[in-house]
Amino acid sequence: MKVFAQLLFALSLIVGCTATPVWAGDNDPLYVNLTTNDSHRANMGIFFSKNQFERGHPLTIFLNDKGVFLGSKANAAKFSEHQKMLAELIGKGAVVLICPMCMKHYGVKESDLLPGIKIGNAELTGGALFKDNTKTLTW
Predict the structure, then answer these.
(1) CB atoms within 10 A of CB 67
(2) Which of 33, 44, 113, 117 could link 138 by a cystine bridge, Cβ 3.0 to 4.6 Å?
(3) Residue 25 class from Cβ within 10 Å (0-12 exposed, 13-18 middle, 19+ buried)?
């Protein structure tokens, strides 16, 4: 059994050392899944997204789970900084999608959404997520 474990370990080292890392191209799309309503974590996710968008990466931010609170004008007092950044990104051509199931679950109304936020569906969300060379991150 010990020999088998050593063989597996050696094999994993060989495979791990031969794997080719994937690097982002200069204009590969970025898809950020923003699941949090924690102010600091959301700020990090949006700020990182903004920086990469300014470097030429097409950007989609998906407000998912508790992240839907960031897109609601009803939460403007708590998320004013986040909403300002999202509005600026939308104004410059970034796409901000929001999860309709999460909206329903948390009671976020379509009429409360920030201007320019699109309600996700299979075509919009999947189209952005599975676009060739897209890189993804989650906060």
Answers:
(1) 27
(2) 33
(3) exposed
Return the amino acid letter for 7: L
pTM over 0.90: no
Could you tell me which of 114, 28, 22, 24 has the C-alpha nearest to residue 67? 114
* pLDDT tens digits, one per residue of 13-25: 665 555 555 566 7
Q: Which of 27, 139, 127 is nearest to 82 (CA)?
A: 139
E strands, 42-131, are 59-63, 95-98, 118-119
The amino acid present at 72, given as its one-letter code, is S
Burial class of residue 78 (count of CB atoms within 10 Å of its CB; 0-12, 13-18, 19+): middle
Identify the CA nearest to 98 among candidates 84, 113, 87.
Answer: 113
